[in-house]
Amino acid sequence: MTMSEENISGCRGKEEESEDESEILEESPCGRWQKRKEQVSQGNVPGIETASLAMDTEEGVEVVWNEVQFSDKKVFKSHEDRMREMFESLMHVDHPNIVKFHKYWLDTRESRARVIFITEYMSSGSLKQFLKKTKKNHKTMNVKAWKRWCTQILSALSYLHSCHPPIVHGNLTCDTIFIQHNGLIKIGSVWHRLFVNVFPEAIYGNVQHHRDDETNQHYFAPEYGLAEDVCSIDIFAFGICTLEMAVLEIQANGDTVVSKEAITNAAQSLDDPLIKEFTQSCVRMDAKKRPTAHDLLFHRVLFEVHSLKLLAAHCFINYQYQLHDNCLEEKTRTFDPNGVMAEIKHGDRPGVEIKYSNVSPLELDKFLEDVKNGIYPLMNFQRGLTMPRTLSIFQERMETVKTPSPEPQEMETRKVVQMHCNLEFTEEGTRSHLSLLLKMDDKLQRQLNCDVLPTDSSKDLASELVHFAFISEEDCDKLAGFLEDALCKHWAGPPLEESSLA
């Protein structure tokens, strides 16, 4: 065989292997999620039998298909209500620095019993992998990057711990923290506590003794497993992660276990006294003396007075639904590049002028995108975040999968960022035709049409859109108010051509 024939044969082999991995093994009952043969690693989560790559056919993105096998169908049934409660709560967890939990369903077909749930796919790899690559290239950790990572992780932990009741992660390691190519940090395995604490004896695999995994033993606080989980165990694990992030790797000296001595030596090697103090405060043996996630955000090594630019960016993102498309681009285009945007005056010396030409629209767009993605959180100002305990009255309960019948209607979780409506009287004059255009936060657009009567309630119309999963429940009141204003103007005066609200 010639060299070219060998190359062709090798390419064909790779193509066949790729096609084999992309083979669809199973579909969700609704047909949206398609499980592939290729398996992925998204952190060490006890109880997860398999984690496979899957396709979200609605969004056109890759996701992770996770499966938990139960050893006994009767035991599965006894845990069913508790499972539903826990998984429903997880579906309400929404934070830019936490891996998204999309969907779950229960499967009791034939003799097997299992839970399947779909999570966001973190394609860029774990923080541990990134640290290993950095060390391999003989580089040291940048302090600014370390601070930015710590802030994002604490932002997520503060959110979880502020929920009612608090959500304890319980498995925070550098393997369950993921980093994206743009520097965005996300923590995964938030559902870990569900498997370990709620029904460990019912699941295939050694879940009960996962703490015995020697490679990650140093992340567990001394009190872990001795009593009910508390938030302080996450702070201890976070402290070990921050130390590992600072030194790139805690040397185990050839042992499988990272000893207390190795952790102490790594902490002593830190040059920055504030970073050293920060990490040591997290890993105190007395759990009661460890700071909270919120307190750590105010530590001297992390806390800073946010710039006006960052505050304005968060304000812009939070109220973006009130602005039309490309408003930022249109506004900046009208500015005179030589116009003075701001001026700082000094009595004893010349002042400083900042012109519009000093600001790059492209850099501004990228900064806004980073803020929106969660790279620069404003957690210093947020307290008392709550998470709904129960579903909305509009959300239908998920039934156990017994037959290949269609899955109940899903709830919409995406936010509406823009609304436009057009109202026109019909020929008969007793009703009007409503055209509603909704733009979602992922840039998806939905156009809905219906006839309305003067007696129709805007609240009922919005609630119906929630029921049929066209909008999220959070947007119900906003849309109802928007429709109420548009309908009142329409019925009270001349035909309303168009209304809009972002």
UniProtKB/TrEMBL annotation:
Tell me the superkingdom of the source.
Eukaryota
Give start and end of each Protein kinase domain.
34-302
Q: Which Gene3D superfamilies match?
A: Phosphorylase Kinase, domain 1 (3.30.200.20), Transferase(Phosphotransferase) domain 1 (1.10.510.10)
* UniProt keyword terms in alphabetical order: Cytoplasm, Neurogenesis, Phosphoprotein
Q: Which GO terms describe its biological process?
A: nervous system development
Localization per record: Cytoplasm
Q: Which GO terms describe its cellular component?
A: cytoplasm
- Official protein name in the record: Nuclear receptor-binding protein 2
Q: Which organism is it from?
A: Salvelinus namaycush (Lake trout)
